[in-house]
Amino acid sequence: RNAILGGVAAFGLWGIVATVWLVVSRPDEPAVAAGTDAVAGSKSQVKSIAVLAFEDMSPEGDQEYFSDGISEEILDALAKVGGLRVSGRSSAFQFKGTSPDLREVGRQLGVEAVLEGSVRKSGDQLRIAAQLVSAEDGFHLWSDTYDRQLADVFAVQQEIAQAIVTALGFGKAATPSVGTAREERIAAHDFYLLGLHRWNNRGSAEDLEAALAHFQRAAQEDSLFARAHAGMALIYTVWPQFDPLYPEADAIRLGKEEAARAAELDPTLAQPHAALCQMATWYEWEWAAADDHCRKAIELRPNYATAHQWYSELLLRLGRAEEGLAEAKLAKQLDPLSPILSNAIAWSNIQLGDYEAALAANEDVLELAPDAWYATWEAIVVGFNLRRAEGLEEAFLKWAETPEDSTLHSAFVESFLEAPSNEARRQEAVEMVPELSLNLRIDPILYMLLGAPERALDALEEMSVQRDQQLPHSLQMAVMVPLRSNPRFLALKRKTGLDRPPAATD
Predict the structure, then answer these.
(1) Do 130 and 143 contact (CB within 8 A), yes or no?
(2) How far apart are alpha carbons 133 and 129 in whole angstroms?
(3) Which of 147, 297, 307, 496 could form a disulfide with 273 if both were Cys (CB 3.0 to 4.6 A apart)?
């Protein structure tokens, strides 16, 4: 009897400790036992979720790339579940390194549930702890801890993903797949996660180079590792946009090779098709192929915000700005804290000629990423179209590289704003445009706003000579409408293939 009483007391003490731990870690949220199903107060089926970056609890604190990778692979698995909307990585990882109120996270991301956890990797030992919380009422829907060998990392991700799917009310039928048997090679997986970490945190060509090296090493360890090849395809796709000196022909050739290899190894991957869509859109101007690949990427992974973003960019170049705006907004809904998606919305509105809406989207960019260079570019374009002095000169001057540039830019802004009522100032501004040494893409816009259409055509034709990636987009902008029947303009559309765009389909 004493032994039984002692056991009961110990069990009771364990329960108190567990409850206190949960309350301390989330003081405003009620706790439930580990491994339980959804508790009362939750919905029968939760249709949206955010997966936060799992915390690195490793002894040396040097496994951030690994804990991030585990989080992202679980996110990717959940994104394949039909009927479940999964918040994009860039938004969900905004809360990394903080201890946010998960209900506030749910509000900001527009999701009903939030998954958080931790990873402890020590040698070949792995511990993953995770908990799923209702963003509406703070109730814990599910939680568990997994102690495994590192070799079991793929199986445990599968196990966690299935447990979450069940807790969300989707049952056993929607079991997502994380990794294949051929991918269960730990060295390859580790290099892949290193590459994924650098890819997701890219800010320069050096980051792309480091990510590429890790993906290449992963593919060397396991030549059948489809996601490593998909990662390389994505890197080649954007490299010329990060480094203008990187040969586009090499990027296209290598990107296509890696995308084809990834799709061959795993036909369910959306990333290879997204990469092929972007290459056909930006570099090749192969509109039908771009359309096919974008649609395929979205079909394979409807929650893939990047695929919707790149499809939006394609639609803008095809002159279907309303559809492009809708895709940009859908991408933003999937990844609400991503500044680049606010940028996509701004550009869609610029093309539509809705500059007030573009200005609002640009303000959202600056709120999320105050140092984003593309926000300055948008502010210049919007400011000139609205002819507003407020903020225009400040944005315009950010492009100045010398004091002389600053003086010239200030003088141009002054002449430009006076141009509508002063012909001499208009002519002065027109002559100053070539001296500004701006990105070539803004010159046609300035010429059109200054009432110099022939000069605008000259600038567009110079973009064509240089095969500027943005020429198709520039041709479709609202400010170019007066040129659409001009023979020189029509010749540019033929040269870019925009005179025969693919037909829109439902």
Answers:
(1) yes
(2) 14
(3) 297
Hunting for tokens 């990873």 — which residue is that? Answer: 119
In angstroms, the CA 292 to CA 506 distance is 13
Please answer whether residues 449 and 384 qualify as being in contact, where contact means their C-beta atoms are separated by less than 8 angstroms.
yes
Residue 97 Cα distances to 64, 94, 129, 351, 440, angstroms: 11, 9, 16, 38, 41
User: What φ, ψ does residue 293 adopt, rounded to 5°?
Assistant: -70, -40
Distance CA 298, CA 295 (A): 5
Q: Angle CA(492)–CA(495)–CA(501) in degrees, nearest 5?
A: 95
Q: In this predicted model, what pLDDT tens digit does every residue of 162-184 receive, in sequence order?
A: 889 888 888 664 455 555 444 44
Residue 370's pLDDT is 85
The 8-class DSSP code of residue 126 comes to E
Structure tokens at 312: 């939006």
pLDDT digits (tens, 9 = 90+) for 312-350: 999 999 999 999 999 999 999 999 999 999 999 999 999
CA 72 from centroid of its chain's CA atoms = 13
C-alpha dihedral, 362 to 110 to 86 to 98, nearest 10°: 80
Distance of CA 7 to the CA centre of its chain: 53
Distance CA 251, CA 283 (A): 10
The token pair that represents 55 in the structure block: 């915390």
SS3 133: strand
Give the C-alpha separation, 297 to 196, whole Å: 19
Residue 34 has which token pair?
């580990």
Task: Give the HSE-up count for residue 404: Cα atoms under 13 Å, Cβ half-sphere.
Answer: 3
Distance between CA atoms of residues 408 and 400, nearest Å: 9
Output Rg (C-alpha) for the chain, integer angstroms. 26
Kind and range of the H or E run holding 86: strand 85-86
Residue 283 DSSP code: I
Q: Are 316 and 348 in contact (CB under 8 A)?
A: yes
Which carries the bigger pLDDT value, residue 459 or residue 399? 459
DSSP state of 270: S
Lookup: tokens for 421: 């009522």
Please return the burial class of 20, using the count of CB atoms within 10 Å of its CB with bins 0-12, 13-18 and 19+: exposed
pTM of the model: 0.84
**Alpha-carbon distance 92 to 109, whole Å?**
8
List Cα–Cα distances, 98 to 53, 92, 94, 105, 365, in angstroms.
Answer: 10, 12, 9, 11, 22
CB atoms within 10 A of CB 486: 15
